[in-house]
């Protein structure tokens, strides 16, 4: 295994804050002078994540029912926040620093005080992290939320004709459509909650969902199509995807799901991620998100902007990379 950067350089990227910045939208701005001694370390990408702003309202989604959805800023409730919370949780697992747990708990407390949100595939995503937090803290106020949302996913979530989870979102019901995204957004939370609360029916339900998404033979036409699609290099370079590949490959190697010969591939992806993290901890070159488009140009036109899910994927990739030093 080759070393892409020194441990000191990596820690500088992850844990050292730039000069103190004034508070932004929700007033959270963390600055630690001595990150490795005494106080918990300041994770620059987390700083950026919880302070992402949309001052112009450019990225607000206005629904027909008058509801306004905030997918970009930290005080919204969408799949972007679900992935963001999970990234912070992974750092808390590694460091044990209560600061990171408090960021998560504060997010849920504020959203619950607002009355929650409407249920769909994407808004289920934060409950994966909430299940882990409940497992750690046993905060009983979380239990009704976990139970109610898991019951919805099990029994009331719209299904396709063959029983699959229809990828219903704020914007579109996506009738009869199955999306791979559902695995992260709803299947994993449901499986974790089912295991945590001893609900075998919830766990049993998600097993075929996962297998259906992953069981592709080498000559399967869908697999061949996906491989051919990956060879079409016509879109802009996108950093959160690279971070996702880095995390998935390095974790799969560590857990021995794939061979050690893939480690260098993951390390090269990490090197690219590090180049895209700026001095403020922002993962640059992150797309706003990729809903279903009707042509290739749709994806090329998606704007580049800082997003919670992008920050989280960088956090997860770099944290997984830190494990190579242990």
Automatic annotation (TrEMBL):
MF terms in GO: hydrolase activity
SUPFAM superfamilies the UniProt entry points to: Six-hairpin glycosidases (SSF48208)
Annotated signal sequence range: 1-15
InterPro entries to which the protein is assigned, alphabetical: 6-hairpin_glycosidase_sf, 6hp_glycosidase-like_sf, Glyco_hydro_88, PolySaccharide_Degr_Enz
A biological process from GO: carbohydrate metabolic process
Keyword Acetylation carried by entry: no
Pfam family, one: Glyco_hydro_88
Keywords: Hydrolase, Signal
PANTHER family linked: UNSATURATED RHAMNOGALACTURONAN HYDROLASE (EUROFUNG) (PTHR33886)
Name listed for the protein in its UniProt record: Unsaturated rhamnogalacturonan hydrolase
Organism field: Penicillium cosmopolitanum
Classification lineage: Eukaryota, Fungi, Dikarya, Ascomycota, Pezizomycotina
């Amino acid at each position: 295994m080759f070393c892409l950067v020194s441990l000191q350089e990596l820690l500088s990227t992850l844990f050292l804050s730039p000069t103190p910045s004034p508070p932004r939208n929700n007033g959270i701005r963390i600055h630690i002078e001595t990150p490795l001694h005494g106080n918990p370390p300041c994770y620059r990408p987390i700083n950026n994540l919880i302070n992402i702003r949309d001052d112009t309202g450019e990225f607000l989604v206005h629904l027909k029912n008058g509801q306004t959805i905030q997918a970009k800023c930290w005080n919204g409730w969408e799949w972007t926040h679900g992935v963001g919370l999970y990234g912070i949780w992974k750092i808390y697992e590694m460091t044990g620093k209560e600061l990171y747990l408090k960021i998560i708990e504060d997010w849920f407390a504020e959203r619950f005080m607002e009355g929650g949100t409407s249920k769909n595939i994407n808004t289920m995503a934060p409950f994966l992290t909430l299940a882990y937090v409940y497992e750690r803290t046993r905060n009983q106020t979380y239990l009704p939320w976990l139970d109610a949302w898991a019951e919805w996913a099990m029994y009331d979530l719209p299904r396709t004709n063959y029983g699959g989870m229809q990828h219903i979102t704020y914007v579109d019901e996506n009738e009869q459509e199955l999306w791979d995204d559902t695995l992260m957004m709803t299947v994993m939370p449901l499986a974790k909650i089912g295991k945590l609360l001893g609900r075998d029916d919830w766990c049993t339900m998600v097993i075929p969902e996962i297998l259906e998404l992953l069981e592709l033979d080498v000559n399967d036409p869908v697999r061949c199509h996906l491989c051919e699609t990956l060879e079409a290099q016509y879109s802009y370079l996108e950093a959160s995807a690279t971070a996702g590949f880095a995390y998935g490959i390095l974790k799969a190697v560590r857990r021995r799901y794939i061979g050690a010969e893939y480690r260098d591939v993951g390390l090269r992806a990490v090197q690219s991620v590090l180049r895209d993290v700026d001095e403020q901890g922002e993962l640059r070159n992150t797309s706003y998100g990729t809903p279903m488009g009707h042509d290739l140009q749709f994806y090329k036109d998606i704007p580049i902007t800082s997003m919670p899910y992008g920050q989280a994927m960088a956090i997860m990739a770099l944290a997984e990379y830190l494990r190579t030093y242990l």
